[in-house]
């Protein structure tokens, strides 16, 4: 566990610096401009089965964040039911949430579990998360109640 804490600690500082939460609320991982998922199309994970960059000309706003889409069809699907496509834990790393932290979720390290999109920080973290997906989802969901409204940097200081 000490090795893991060391890994998280080393990553935590750089991620805390890189992660910029919206002023409206820190429960959503978005850039300082409000761009969610680093511009990736949330619907494409479900329809294409891969991380797909969205087009800057095809956007929708939901909860003060801007989402980009690869097609007008994906935008329409999102607008009809955004909750079906939003990533768990506001787009923060699912494994990090299980550990009680908020790290930037990388749109390239993802998995859909029970019709829910989960992002992780990196390939190594994704592999650890895949070792016990149900257990980590349970821990993350329990932790999320406590950390959703906290700034990522605040969690690093605890």
List keywords for this structure.
158 residues; alpha+beta; two-stranded antiparallel ribbon; 7 helices; 40% helix; disordered N terminus
Please provide a brief summary of the model.
The chain contains seven helices and six strands, in the order H-E-E-H-E-E-H-H-E-E-H-H-H. By secondary structure, the protein is of the alpha+beta class. The chain starts with a helix and ends with a helix.
Number of strands: 6
Described by the principal axes of the CA atoms, the overall outline is globular
Report the sheet with the most strands, covering strand number, pairing sense and barrel closure. Answer: 2 strands, antiparallel
Count of distinct structural domains = 1
Query: What letter string, H or E per element, gives the SSE order?
Result: HEEHEEHHEEHHH
* Computed CA radius of gyration, to the nearest angstrom: 15 Å
Please, how many helices?
Answer: 7
What is the averaged pLDDT score?
85
User: Can you tell me the residue ranges where pLDDT is under 50 for at least 5 consecutive residues?
Assistant: 1-25
Q: Which structural class do you get from the secondary structure elements?
A: alpha+beta
How much beta, percentage-wise? 15-25%
Portion of residues within helices: 25-40%
Distance between the termini: 17 Å
Spatial ordering of strands, largest sheet: 1-2
Topology:
Blueprint: H1 2-18, E1 21-22, E2 25-29, H2 44-47, E3 55-62, E4 65-69, H3 72-80, H4 94-98, E5 106-113, E6 116-120, H5 123-130, H6 133-147, H7 152-156
Antiparallel strand pairs: 1-2, 3-4, 5-6
């Amino acid at each position: 566990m000490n090795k893991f804490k060391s890994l998280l600690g080393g990553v935590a500082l750089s991620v805390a610096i890189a992660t910029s939460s919206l002023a409206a609320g820190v429960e959503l991982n978005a850039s300082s401009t409000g761009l969610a998922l680093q511009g990736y199309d949330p619907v494409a994970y479900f329809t294409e089965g891969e991380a797909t960059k969205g087009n800057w000309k095809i956007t929708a706003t939901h909860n003060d964040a801007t989402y980009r889409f690869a097609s007008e069809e994906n935008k329409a699907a999102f607008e009809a039911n955004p909750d079906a496509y939003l990533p768990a834990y506001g787009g923060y790393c699912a494994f990090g949430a299980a550990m009680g932290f908020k790290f930037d979720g990388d749109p390239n390290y993802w998995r859909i579990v029970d019709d829910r999109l989960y992002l992780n920080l990196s390939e190594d973290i994704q592999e650890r998360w895949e070792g016990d997906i149900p257990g980590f989802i349970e821990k993350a969901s329990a932790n999320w109640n406590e950390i959703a409204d906290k700034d990522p940097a605040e969690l690093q200081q605890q």
